[in-house]
Amino acid sequence: EVQVVESGGGLVQPGGSLRLSCAASGFTFDDYAIAWFHQAPGKEREGLVCFSQILGRTDYADSVKGRFTISTDNAKNTVYLQMNNLKPEDTGVYYCAAAHCSWGPWTVRSWGQGTQVTVSS
């Protein structure tokens, strides 16, 4: 089955950093892109990043551009989201997903379970 599992959330102070992991199984990064979403309390789920290995393309939402970066460990089938200079508004649940997101409307094949990030002093 196509499956992704995210981890690495926690409590961090404003200006701090955190690295989230998205472990993939049942597919390769040539089959689906990996997308990251953020859902702040009381708000709609928002797409943040679309990483397509086969296209060699990573797209970032304006809200995280310059602060968040993608890296990969292909041997572990894992994608990492490095989150720097975190702000209180970054608080919320982060989801990774196997997706098609490099063109047209984003469509999700499989969602991760979500991991909580809290940015507070």
Question: Notable features of this structure?
Answer:
121 residues, mainly beta, seven-stranded mixed β-sheet, four-stranded antiparallel β-sheet
Q: Mind explaining what this structure looks like?
A:
The model has no long low-confidence stretch (mean pLDDT 97). The chain is an all-beta fold and 121 residues long. The chain contains no helices and 11 strands. It has strands spanning 3-7, 10-12, 18-25, 33-39, 46-52, 57-60, 68-73, 78-83, 92-100, 107-111, 115-119. The chain is globular. The relative contact order is 0.32. Strands 2, 4, 5, 6, 9, 10 and 11 form a 7-stranded mixed sheet that branches. A 4-stranded antiparallel sheet has the order 1-3-8-7, with no helix packed on it.
Topology:
Elements: E1 3-7, E2 10-12, E3 18-25, E4 33-39, E5 46-52, E6 57-60, E7 68-73, E8 78-83, E9 92-100, E10 107-111, E11 115-119
Quick summary of this structure?
The chain is mainly β and 121 residues long.
- Main pleated-sheet profile: 7 strands, mixed
Low-confidence stretches: none
Radius of gyration: 13 Å
- Give the topology string: H per helix, E per strand: EEEEEEEEEEE
Residue share in helix: under 10%
Quantity of strands, as a count: 11
Q: Quickly count the helices.
A: 0
Q: Structural class of the helices, strands and pairings?
A: mainly beta
Strand proportion, as a percent range, falls in over 45%
* Overall mean confidence score, pLDDT: 97
Quaternary status of these chains? single chain
Shape: globular
Distance between the termini: 40 Å
